[in-house]
Amino acid sequence: MKDRVKGLIRIRAKDLAPNPNNWREHPIEQVAAFRKVLNDVGFADVLLVYESSEGKYTLIDGHMRAGLLQNEELPAVVLDVTEKEANDILVTLDPIAAMAKTNQEKLEELKAVVGIDITGVLSRLPTMIKDMEKQNASAPPIKQHQRWHVTCPACGEEFFPGDNNERD
Length: 168
Prior knowledge:
Helix content is 33%, strand content 17%. By secondary structure, it is an alpha+beta fold. A hairpin with a 5-residue loop joins β2 and β3.
């Protein structure tokens, strides 16, 4: 096994380069769930980055987190990989994680003892969106039946409320 981890750094999210090949989209429901955990627990994950040939740290994993927390210093694991290897990781990391099966019994046992309720996030989504608007003055106001989006200033991704993150 090759250990490709060079180290752990803390870096301001807006100083990271987005990966131009990032294929993941993050619907507003995911953003709301992430903000709920962030508010209840705090930041408890790392970004994956590599150093590009231009000397910039480039995201492999963590575009949503970096985009939402652009003014924060976040922990990032720096990998010793080429651009091609970074893209190999980018294209396989989430699909491999998604192959995991759910042991429903264990999940229910865990949910019974944890102090956070993510299942309620979707029912509170309208309130959470209003709270997000207050935190982000650049976001347009939400009106009934109005389509809107927020563009992440760090990575350029667009977040759309509603069905499956569809674009207009």
